[in-house]
Amino acid sequence: MLEEALTRIAAAQDHRALQDVRVAYLGKKGHLTERLKALGALTPDERREAGRALNELKRALEGAFDERVRALDEAVVRAQLEGERVDVTLPGVRTSAGAHHLLTQVTHKLLDVFRSLGYEVVVGPELEDDHHNFTALNFPPEHPARDTQDTFWTTDGRLLRTHTSPVQVRYMREHRPPFRVVVPGKVFRNEAVDATHEAQFHQLEALVVGERVTMADLRGAITAMATALLGSGTRTRLQPTFFPFVEPGAEFAVWWTHPKTGREEWLELGGCGMVHPNVFRAVGYEGVTGFAFGFGIERLAMVTYGVADIRDLYRGDVRVLEQFRGMA
Ligand code: PHE
Description:
Blueprint lengths: L1 H10 L3 H12 L4 H8 L5 H40 L18 H15 L3 E2 L5 E2 L1 H4 L25 E2 L5 H9 L4 E10 L11 E11 L4 H16 L5 E5 L5 E12 L6 E12 L1 H7 L5 E8 H9 L12 H5 L6
Parallel strand pairs: 1-4
Antiparallel strand pairs: 2-3, 4-5, 5-9, 6-7, 7-8, 8-9
Bound molecules: phenylalanine.
C-alpha cells in the first residue's frame, strides 16, 4: 500500500488532487483507516504486531503528505516569481532630474573656497532695521543710501537689507575675535530693473577680525579667492573709494580674460576695506583690527557664464536654467 500511496502523492499536481489522495488513505473510509478499524477483529498479540506496522505506515504517509504540501507551495511561489520577472532589457521611463540654479552653484563654489581657507559660513535676516543696516555701520544720518530711492521700507519702519554688511554687526555682537566669516545672502534695492539691475540680488560678504589683521591680509584673501576661481597667477587690484564702514576703503577688481570677447581686462567685483573704528565701537570691540569685503554674486555669475540679462536668472525658464546645469 505504501508504494502505491507514495506514487499517487508524488503524482498529485495541486493541493486539491493531493487532498483527494489524502482522503483516499487517511479519510474516514480511507484504505488505512479501514485497516485500522479491522484491527479490532484480531487477537491481542496479532493486534500489537499489526498495530505497530500500521502506525508506522501512517506516519510515513503523513510525512509524505506534508512534504508534498511544501513542494506544491514552493512551486506556486516559484511560478509567481517567474511570471512577475522584470525584463531588464525593456527601455526605462526617463524622469527629468532637477539641477541647482546657476546662482546656487556659484554660491556653493565660493563658499567651498572660503571654507577651505578656514572661514565659517554665517547668515542673517533679510528683514532688517535702520540700526544694523546703516547706523551701526557708520552711515551718517543724512546718507543718501537711506533714501526711499534705494531702500525698501516696511510700513512699521523696518527695511529689506540693502547689503549683507549688517550681518557684520550682528555677528560681532555675538562673538569675540579672532574670527573669519563669510555671509552669503539676498539683498534688496529699490531701483529700476534693467538688464544689469534687479531689485533683488545676492551678495557675499567676508569679515575677518583679529589682533593684527592688515590690509595685506585683505589683499591676500581677495587674491586667494580670485586664484581659486580663475587659476593661479590671477592678478587683483584695489582702488581707493568710500564706504562709511571701512577706512581705508577700496573697490577691488580681478584681471581676467572675458570669456565672450576674449579681451583681457579688469573685472570690477565689489567693495572692501579695513573695518572702521566707529563700527568696532558700535559693537564694543577694542584693540583689534579687521577687514571686510562684499560683492554681488549675480554679476560674477553673469560675466563668468555669459548671462546677458540678469532677469533671465529670475524668470524660472527651464530652457535658460538647463543651459547652466552643472556649470560651476
Ligand atoms: N556693503 C557694500 C555694498 O553693498 C560692499 C562692501 C562690503 C564694502 C564690505 C566694503 C566692505 O556695496
